[in-house]
Amino acid sequence: MRERTLEDLKRRELSGARGTCGRRMRGTNVVPFVVMALAAGIVLPFQAGVNAMLRGAVGGPLRASLISFAIGSIVLFLATIAAREPWPGLARALHGPAWMWVGGVLGAAYVAATIVLVPRIGGAVTFALLIAGQMAASLAIDQFGLLGLERHPLSLARIVGAALLVIGVVLIRR
What's the predicted TM-score (pTM) here? Predict the structure, then answer.
């Protein structure tokens, strides 16, 4: 068996990331992925409400975020054990780009923000603003092919869609 070099691993990871963003989805039944995305979206407001309640019980958004992440980490650890997924070697994990380790920090900031925002401005406004922010960032990531993802250039339809989301935020805020 041939030893894989760092370049082979990077090339494989990047081609897999690009494929899942475009080429690999063509000709594939996307319905399960659409359902999964909708379900994940449905869960987020519930998570924010639950975490806001936890904030009241433990006395602060940072403590509530910590507890939420600790429980989630335990569940993911147990699920990984149950799935019997092999762990990659430490060397392989350390050879990726440094920015790939920021995901947990971004998740923690997101959870803490929702814990603060939902009780103050409401779930609908919070998530309307979050969705508008996600759309703006997603358009930039797609436009420039950031994070190793396939480029999807801006188009008039994409810009109008994003503008309609912003209009939706304004209407929900009223």
Answer: 0.74
